[in-house]
Amino acid sequence: MSLASSRLPVPLRLALRELRGARRGFGIFLGCLVLGVTAIAGIGSFAGALTQGLEREGRAILGGDAGFSVVQREMTADERASLDRHGTLGSVALLRAMARTEAGDASLAEVKAVDGTYPLVGTVGLDPPMPVADALKEKNGVFGAAADPVLLGRLGVKTGDRIRLGDATFEVRATLTSEPDKLSSGVGLGARLLVSQAALPATGLIQPGSLVRWSYRLLLDNPAPENLKAVMGEVREPMGRAGFEVRTRDGATPQLARNVGRISQFLTLVALTALLVGGVGVANAVSSHLAGKLEVIATLKAVGATRRDVFLTYGAEIGLISAFGIVLGLILGAALPFAATAAIGALVPFPLDPQLDWAALARAALYGLVVAAVFSVIPLARAQEARVSALFRDGIGEMRRRISLPYLLMVGGLGAALVVLALLTSDDKRAAAIFLAAAAAVFVLLRLVASGLMALARRAPRPRGAAARLALGNIHRPGALTPSVVLSLGLGLSLLVGISLVDASLNRELNGPVRENAPSFFFVDVPNSEEAEFRAFLAEQAPGAVVKSVPMLRGRITHVKDIPAEEVKPRPDAAWVLQSDRGISSSATVPEGSTVVAGKWWTGDETEPLVSFDSELATGLGLKLGDTVTVSVLGRSVTARIANMRQVKWERLGINFVMVFSPATFAGAPYTVLATLAFPDGGDTAREIALLKAMAARFPAITTVRVKETLEEAQRMLDNLSLGIRAASLVTLITSVLVLAGALAAGRERRIYDAVILKTLGATRGRLTLAYGLEYAGLGLATAIVAAAAGTAAAWGVVTQVMDIPFTFAPLPAFGAVVAALAVTLVVGLLGTLRALSAPPARVLRHL
Hints:
The chain contains 26 helices and 22 strands. By secondary structure, the chain is an alpha+beta fold.
């Protein structure tokens, strides 16, 4: 013994000695811990790489050091002057319009009209390569354009062909392969078409009330952080008061950053579930290891060791092994973003900046330590109660003694610490609390189910067949596999069933009621002066179709109860209302699809500005009847009092708004009309395409949105998201299999003992295999039924209470859970049993 080691506390010295003989038996322990920690560290590190990438490329994404955007109007000369003196100011106009060919084919395009400064930062990718100015300038009386390949494919045109946009003709001179500021404009309904601002007047698309977002980008002469802060301190308040949405390079894509955080949080909670399932494997591994150390523990106590010495010795040993597993998991998790960037970095449409995310790694390490401690305390508390008499009698089985109150309090405290850690590291505390409560409820339910199964098996009539009788006895015997199988496999399957049923309900809603109730078309930017002519045209082209229309403007909430919008702390699910401008309308009657749930609708004679607010979103913003909201519309701030609140059925995809104002509020203001068209029989693709072409030819300035295409895009996005969530939840199922294997390994000595005695009494290998197979099949079937029921209940709660859509039960996920549970339990169980049946009997018989 070295001098250094002799100075260590006695429990730690004994733990280090014990580790020399603990090289085997901890594979499952380490597997469960490493898998969970790797998942949490990897998810956090990858999200950090994406966030860091967005911050690193913030200047290019925003298009400058600061951005100022407003709808339906351009900057005034004074507003431009206040920014021009700090650097170079560029502008971009964003709008939707119908691009059409000479043959009459039409497709919705996301038009970006740029000035001569574009791009202030970064490079635009064009094929063939050329300066942006050359691609867009006027030649021989025709302006140029660069188009997304998707748009060219939809229109059936190529470089060199001509297309029409509004009243103007453009020559497609290049394919648009990349935009440095693409992420700042969010997800669009159409493909990009890049044109010059000088060409906009000829298109006739810019009319009073047209939905055009003007985005101004400021590139500072002095880009130093302190200068950016000083400039923003000077201009943020007046520009915000004028209705501009203000961003800086440090928060170029706030919505994307928020979404990354939310997805990361959800996947982290899923990974935490896997780690909790792995905790059952940790408990099994620790119990198995300590069961083999009973004689050593008894010897230590015989020579004077106290219960505390035993607890600290083996607690230190488990702690050191846990630390090794956690470090290994952290290394793998930290490497994940680097590996992902190298493998798929070119395919990801977002900038990745992989680096060691110490916060994510620390969070994963804390989760690993707390989970390992929670599931190790009970086995350690039982092991310290080993009696010295264990030296003088041989036995198989783990000790089941009552746990003293201090250790129960320790487990409770560690569990509370785990909950606090999860809540502190989550942006959406409410969602995290619901997830943790659901996981705890399922844990308790599955443990009760396991106890119930054991009690039922204990009281059930004895089967006549020996194999069935042995299988039934194994389910309720001391040290039975029942709790481990039901807990581990049940939680993983519950998660998969729940996710599958939520996905099925969303798909049913998108492909059923939503598709059936949704109109065939939305028409945006209908000039109010042409509404009568527009309706007459639709009546001619689509006789019998139902056309509905409302006035529409764009506005941004600047104050809530006289509090600036950026200082309001809304509920996470309502924050989007304050993040940008949105459609608003006025109406003398309650909009279709809305029900007034508080207050009264106005009579129409009021002159005071009044507003009707969506009730759920109002609650999320902390608003009540009589409160005020200030909205910036067309550069003018309007403060309105909340007169009533509505419950809105958004899933119908009809015309509705978060805010509907009284008619007098915007009297005299220029506006456009938003209209929908629905065919009585639902319509068909041929009729819809024909109407789309006719509308684009007759009213080129009106944007026509075909709803079926939008729903198909939503379906693709949902499928991709579901795939990612299922992949994350598979980690839980893999951990469940590891736990099951660990439970079998922990009970291997007992199985060997049973097999040898039964074979000595005449049982054949085949009969024992049948008995164990019946046991595993019974446990797997019971677990699958409970998991399917728990997953269904959880999915019902999420779908009906959170998403507020009808719940759809899909038999396939439930049936799949049954098959998966039976297959996994039988395969893993019988593989472990065959090893026990192959053990030589002499080792057991010589101790009898």
